[in-house]
Amino acid sequence: MSECDNTDVPRREQFRRVVLVKYLQQNVESMYPQIGRETYRVPDVHINKGKEGEINQDGVSELIQPTDTDIRSDRAHSFVIDMVYQLSKRMKETKIGPFFIISSYEYDHFLSRLKASFDEKLCPYDVDVNFPNGSGHDRGEIDILIVLPKHVIFMEIKAIGDNFGDYGGDKLIPVRENIKKSTKQLLRDQKVFDHIMADLKLQDFKCTDIVALPNLERQCLKEALRDEDLWEKCQGIKFICKEDMPKSRLNFQEDFHVFYKWWIDNVFPEIYDDEKYSLIGLSQGRHTNWSSLSQQENLNTENEVNQMSPLDEIKIIVGRYIGFMSVVRVCNNSNTKLHRIEGVMEGRRKGQLVWYVGEKFANIVLTPDQKRYLDANIRLGYLCGPPGSGKTVVLSLRARRWILNDDNFVVVVNMYRGAPGRAIGKQILNTITSNSDKNKESFLKYHTMEIGVDVSVDKFNREEFVKEIKSRWKEDLGDGGQRVMFIVDETYVQSYWNTVFQALRQEFVNSAMWCAGLYGKQPDQFTSLELTKVIRCPPNVQHILLEIDWVDDRKKCYVTDSTTAFLPSNGPQVLTIRHQEHTEYVNVSPSQCPLCGNDLVEIFRKLQVRNPGRAHTEPDLRMWSLQCSEIILLVNMPRTLYSPDPAGFLDTTVDKYRDYMRTFQDCPMLQKLNQAGYPTKVHTNLSCSDLVTKKVQDVINVTWIYTYQGLENKVIIFLPGDEAMPDNCSESYFTEAALNIPCPGLMGSEVKEGQENVDMTGRQTSRGDSESGNSEGIGVSTDSDCSDSDNTPEYNKQRRQMENSQEGMTCQGKLCDDCWCSCEVEQPCPSGDEDLRETINPAQDNSVPFPEPKSTPLEERIVSTADMNRYTRWDKSNLFISGSRCTSQLILITR
């Protein structure tokens, strides 16, 4: 690309420039296909400036508290950029149209890959890209750049105004200093823009400069601008002050009109002038008519560079700033494990930021409280706190340190009701023993064991339990087991696991023991170690948890602003699939609705989820994109399948759980995912140990909420169990949390040999075959008052609905504990997995009409209060567990 536009440039160089212009435009069309029709924000979420410390002896980082300046800057920036995004959504309904928003962009990222290539290859056509004097390109950064047809808006954000107490003198001095910095930055922004776009001859472009001061009152600004020199420098600059911003970040809708009015009065007064902006008037519904702006002909001569339409100009601007020749960096910490290329993590697209946020929240970065407990000399410790507070992290690291410091031993006691352990116990074992040093890993594995325990009534065999532990290391355990530590995660109320607890304390009287739980409290003689902040999921997810949590004291644990707890980001917005809008399927559950499947496919494509059978071709997606294995669909069972148990919880049976999960193996919603190339795997095995023990399969796992408890994933999809308005239910069914708390684990059920059960799809299964409860080692509970012949009106109603919705459908192959459904169109099943069964071939099933997807912008899927109100108290109680498993993107399906 030439340094400046000049008629002496040889024709070959001019043509090379045209090719580059076209290439950058095609980049944008590929990355942002709805540009001009939908709002785009790059990066899609604001990433805070917090840093991680050096890797410590435990192989994890410790949090370095950011400076107060960084915290205040992040808070102001995230607030303003979120409001600008909301503004764009409103402007989409007007003749102005949606914005393309670029934020936190560093000047030297422009064409950096192209320049690096020249440097490396000594290209003979190399012409330096020299920035103008005073541009500060090597250290400058654009806070916000908004691109519109024939209009660019530069915004600088300053957090001044909420910390005057830190200044001992005149408060106007720091205000003036910040304004001066803003004016210089805006000048540099314009110089760089003019240089980058010099060949486009954008003389008719309107440029607006804005300084956003969200913490500063306007009266203080007026006083500062009484300085004549500063007043002169600020001519043409518009200021947003505290009075122009919504008062609350959380409830910005209440007075967002104030922010909106400021923009109409100061930036878009022509919104009322139909004649002036007739070219971009609304012509089709509520979307801007961009077809009149587009130029269909290809650029085949150098003269056409300057004959582009406004929409094409937008694409060129975007392409030069953030196209593949430039860098869009969201991570620059040299210590992070996220660096994949040139020490940089890039994020041009929504899906990449979902991936990155998930990685950041899943990283083990110790908070001060976690580190203090980890260093404490405590033999009997009980970690308590809400889901997502990092209890499991501390347990795992404490166990690892116990082994490495003194050659001691660790036993992971993996308890569950209805099965001998569950996936979280296997995951803790993996965390303790995994190490990049193979010798150290072997050492850790020798000193660690995991023992599965079914704590159902009459299932625990104390003698065998103790014998298995003692036989592993024999006399090396020391006197009274003083060299062994027991790790117990997800403990229940003590009445459920008291027999196990007594065996451990009586048989290994000198042993150490650390445990953690949500429902229970610390046993006698244990030290309570409280974690009071939810740190493992983004604040945008925690907003939902805060709304639905039924324990007032626990509500104090949620972080609604990432800067207050030094979290990486607020994360992506929670999305919703509204089943009630699918009127032709409204009388069946979402799993039986193909339109819900279409919606999921559409979301996956907009998040650029990698199709296992078809690799991404774009270079950035080949480096950073979501995989199917990073998505999990968590299923809630209907409340009508539960009955109260003696401990006061709602309880159900293993058989009901299995029968219900089998209804998903061939449901229309998952068939739509399979047909689109996103394979799914439905788990009906209660322990679900293969979620963590087998080699990760690139599938979307579908499992029950409580088999996944304690684990985490980047994308969580929550599927409710209840109808929006179940029949014959009292008001307390919907409102009282105490009546809607599920019991941990499941009871077994007594089934006579040869007895047949009817599952919720109407199919009959013999309990004498390989699918009986005993085939998985799940015991039979003779004292269950909740039998498989439960024929409540609600149960039969839901069963009839599923039967009707599946009438005529056939299932290829026999029912199995773990059924992998996969599209057979150029999509062979991976080999080497004994649990894989025959696949569903969509071409062979013509009985279910699958309508074509209807595109809905993701911004229209953002969750609302009305969406949450469609959940019963039962679904909210179970969403509380599901949402806390999410490290990035939460997707809710509502009835």
Question: What does the model show?
Answer:
The chain is of the alpha/beta class and 895 residues long. It folds into 3 domains: 22-342, no CATH class; 368-530, Cobalt-precorrin-4 Transmethylase, domain 1; 573-894, no CATH class. 32% of the residues lie in helices and 16% in strands. The chain contains 26 helices and 30 strands. Strands 20-30-26-21-25-24-29 form a 7-stranded mixed beta sheet, with helices on both faces. β9 and β10 form a beta hairpin. The longest helix has 25 residues, at 172-196. It is globular. The two termini are 54 Å apart. Residues 753-806 are annotated as: Disordered. Residues 762-775 have a biased composition (Polar residues).
List the domain count as a whole number.
Answer: 3
**Distance separating the two termini:** 54 Å
Q: What is the radius of gyration?
A: 30 Å
Helix content: 25-40%
Mean pLDDT: 78
Q: What composes the largest sheet?
A: 7 strands, mixed
Spatial ordering of strands, largest sheet: 20-30-26-21-25-24-29
- Shape, please? globular
Question: What class, by secondary structure content?
Answer: alpha/beta
The low-confidence parts are 1-7, 118-127, 131-138, 274-302, 338-342, 749-799, 801-852
Query: In DSSP terms, counting alpha (H) and pi (I) runs of 4 or more, how many helices?
Result: 26
Strand fraction band? 15-25%
Number of strands: 30
